[in-house]
Specification:
Blueprint: E1 3-10, E2 19-24, H1 32-35, H2 42-50, E3 59-63, E4 72-77, H3 86-100, E5 105-109, H4 116-130, E6 149-156, H5 160-185, H6 193-201, E7 209-213, H7 215-220, H8 224-230, E8 238-245, E9 254-264, H9 284-298, E10 304-314, E11 326-328, E12 334-336, H10 344-359, E13 363-368, H11 373-378, E14 383-387, H12 390-403, E15 407-409, H13 414-417, E16 427-428, H14 436-445, E17 453-457, H15 480-490
Parallel strand pairs: 1-6, 2-4, 2-5, 5-6, 9-10, 9-13, 12-16, 13-17, 14-15
Antiparallel strand pairs: 3-4, 7-8, 8-10, 11-12, 14-17
Helix pairs in contact: 3-4, 4-5, 5-9, 8-10, 9-15, 10-14, 12-15
The chain binds ligand BES, manganese (II) ion and zinc ion.
Amino acid sequence: MSMSIEISFSKTAKTTGGLVVALGTLTEPVSAAARSVDPAGQLDKAVKVSGFTGKLFSTTDIIAPVDAPADRIALVGAGDPVKLTAHEWMRVGGKMFTLIRKAGKVTVLLGDTGTPEAAADMALGLLMRAYSFDLYKTKKSDDDENGSRKISVVFQHEDAASCKKAFASRQAVADGVKLARDLVNEPANVLGPVEFAARAKDLEALGMEVEILTEKEMKKLKMEALLGVSLGSVRPPRMAIMKWQGGKPKDKPLAFVGKGVVFDTGGISIKPAAGMEDMKGDMGGAAAVTGLMHTLAARKAKVNAIGIIGLVENMPDGAAQRPGDIVRSMSGQTIEIINTDAEGRLVLCDALTYCQDRFKPEIMINLATLTGAVMVALGQHHAGLFSNDDKLSEALSKAGEVTQERVWRMPLDPAYDKMIDSKFADMKNTGGRYAGSITAAQFLKRFVGETPWAHLDIAGTAMGSPSTDINQSWASGFGVRLLDELVRANYEG
Ligand code: BES
Ligand code: MN
Ligand code: ZN
């Protein structure tokens, strides 16, 4: 059952009833703030017994003594707090959630530890950790006896007004990440191309303009590469174009393009059965773009941004595309289909062409769960980064370090490009056994002109995610925080 968390900030805080959380540091494991709710000194005893030293990310908690105002008191280790990064504060917030999940009313006493930004980061981490996708669970889980419920968390801080201000943009980030995770976690029977497009359309409520291209319109635009992937599906394809105008009217937009294969069976080159259910997440790129656009609009980012997502389902069928088929992309370049399971690049190439032709963007970044090979190369801790622009590449790497949604640059080179030359068409859609992620990137590059461009292969980072202090969900929402940070740090004046 689901849980909703309401965050607020206050200069003063009532500590009667519920749970009180305080930070502990290496120099002061039991802070003055903690002592203020524990006149009898029970915490000192607890700390001694449990060995809590204030070490970063450690926790301890007690049932409050009878004469204390609170029901429970918990301590979360902040180590040496002046040294913590934004992401570490988020992790502290995530740890905090593990203590409060059974509570109803929570007061976090920060005293004078941590800046307003740190408090806001803790709240963001707490929200991200609290996310769970349980839409289809009809039974209550063990640690949520009350079913669907609300937890209110009040952060007490000297400068509550600044905390509140800092948190506003974090709330937008939390909501964008939640949207991306929800979209990836949703099964494909619920979220087809039409349904996904409708979810994108919903963003108009945030002051964005969203256009949806139908199959007919895409045919007119000659997007034969994208449409070829969709041939085997009874569900029609869509393309959603999200426009956020937060900058000066004539500023060129930043463009984000996402692969949205709502389910990837492989098509006629069908995938093995084992693990195929994971291919409901093959729209992780489109989900990240949609989540990012949500965040940018919700925090009223001072940029012009375009989000374009190609939405199709890759199915085997009598009408499906075959190996050996040759399609003409919107760019005019022809593609020989070698393997119908290399469909993501076919969807992206037309979306990239459309994006550049129509919007002439300042930069263009595409995200895609593109290759299994990127997981072989980098595992689940870095996304593959390919770019024609060193500056953009460095900015992305830096945003990756800040958000800990990390990227690792991989090569582009004419020698790899040769591997996708075709006997029958301008190129083929696979490059053979070696360097699978690179040849996929080389394919995309053939559809990119002079625009500074980056391709993020997020097959290893968007889904099947390892549990962390700020994510326990199968879908991580990878890309939303990374690109929000990129925009914030480089393009907002
Ligand atoms: N959607 C897959 C890539 C993928 C695999 C994403 C595992 C997430 C987890 C993509 O469409 C695909 O099937 N790629 C093929 C390409 C090959 C046929 C050249 C692959 O990686 O095997
Ligand atoms: Mn595939
Ligand atoms: Zn795919």
